[in-house]
Amino acid sequence: MTQSSPPVRVAIVGAGGIASGAHLPALESLGGRTTVVAIADLDQDRARTVAANWGIPAVYGDIDEMLEGVHPELVLVCTPPVAHRDAVVKALDAGAWVLCEKPPTLSLAEYDDIAAHEGDAGPYASYVFQHRFGSAAQRLRRQIGTGELGSPLVAVCHTLWYRAPSYFEVPWRGKWATEGGGPTMGHGIHQMDLLLSLLGDWTSVIAQTATLERDVETEDVSFAIVTFESGAVASVVNSLLSPRETSYLRFDFTDATVEVEHLYGYDNSDWTWTPAPSIDRAVSDAWPPTDDIRSSHAAQLTALLDAMAEGRRPPSSGADGRRVLELIAGIYRSAATAAPVARTDLDASDPFYSTMSGAREERAHV
């Protein structure tokens, strides 16, 4: 963006905690690259409170009225998952680019429906997978691309979080029709996306899920073994029952192990590079990045704004954003059928294409 470029006009759909706790602070940190022109929420009193706290000039109770009233260039969708598809489609049809919270949609079918509303040169819909954008992950991605660490062999991807029973008192949580799944869909999706963004396309998965403690329709834990096109194999665990919470990824390459342990975001200090015994330690000292960009909504928004300025598809959109949703569908299908699932199995004829439960139940109305 040049000095003379006007700020991007941003509108927000959904005035809940993720808007105030993550998106608005991120926008404020971008040094004038954006201006928030409106916020919409069915609960207009809540929207007015957020608007007053953040100096947002316009409040709407309806997304259609907001799009017509302020004509934003970028829409941030911060609603519960059941409302994602409709909000994203309306924003795209109004000519706005979109950044939508996770999970992108309730199903692969909904994701593909959204993609049909994108233009050949934009606007595009992208999805919040902020852990890709920290400097350490970016550095590791470059190293994998150049083969600097050798071949990827073994990976571990654990999202071990804790959510008390009271967390699920929110009506839309823990239900297939409104949340789309349990921790595999709504929580571990962040670490799994980072795993896939680094190791590339997956080919097969075998998985098991269970509902051990929480009063939910969905799972509260899941376990999976994932095979990648490169031949690498990963162990993936998602839990909402783990009192010592952690997000942990480990990558074993021919010449090094790279690990990160954090909770909801990392900086360089959360990562370690350990060379194989045969590798000169002096070489390994140069492996961590020299810059220190924390994984955050601000880091992803910066990449999105750069893509908008250049008129190109942003990261975490299109096929790039779909990959993790495919894996989640594969995990649920494998767990339900007690059989391995190939990525190629998940076409439009498969029940798990239409809903993560595989039951083809009617989608909840919003």
The CA-CA distance between the termini, in Å, is 37 Å
Count of DSSP strands: 14
Order of strands, widest sheet = 13-12-11-7-10-9-8-14
Helix residue percentage: 25-40%
What is the count of structural domains?
A: 2
Estimated radius of gyration: 20 Å
Instruction: Give the CA-based shape.
Output: globular
With helices defined by DSSP (H or I, 4 residues minimum), what is the helix count? Answer: 13
* Estimated share of beta-strand residues: 15-25%
CATH superfamily of the largest domain: Dihydrodipicolinate Reductase, domain 2
CATH topology of the largest domain: Dihydrodipicolinate Reductase, domain 2
Structural class: alpha/beta
Reading off the top of the CATH hierarchy, the class of the largest domain is best stated as: Alpha Beta
Low-confidence stretches: none
Q: Which architecture of the largest domain does the CATH hierarchy give at level 2?
A: 2-Layer Sandwich
Nearest-integer average pLDDT:
95
Main β sheet profile: 8 strands, mixed
What string gives the helices and strands in order? EHEHEHEHEHEHEHHHEEEEEEHHHEH
Description:
InterPro entries: Gfo/Idh/MocA-like_OxRdtase_N, Gfo/Idh/MocA_Oxidoreductase, GFO_IDH_MocA-like_dom, NAD(P)-bd_dom_sf. This is Oxidoreductase. Keywords: NAD. It holds the Pfam family GFO_IDH_MocA. The chain is an alpha/beta fold and 366 residues long. The protein folds into two domains: 142 residues, NAD(P)-binding Rossmann-like Domain (Rossmann fold, 3-Layer(aba) Sandwich), CATH 3.40.50.720; 177 residues, Dihydrodipicolinate Reductase, domain 2. The chain is 33% helix and 24% strand. The chain is built from 13 helices and 14 strands. The protein has an eight-stranded mixed sheet, covered by helices on one side. A six-stranded parallel sheet has the order 3-2-1-4-5-6, sandwiched between helices. A hairpin with a 4-residue loop joins strand 9 and strand 10. Helix 9 packs across helix 12. The protein is globular. The chain starts with 7 loop residues before the first strand and ends in a 12-residue tail after the last helix. The model has no long low-confidence stretch (mean pLDDT 95).
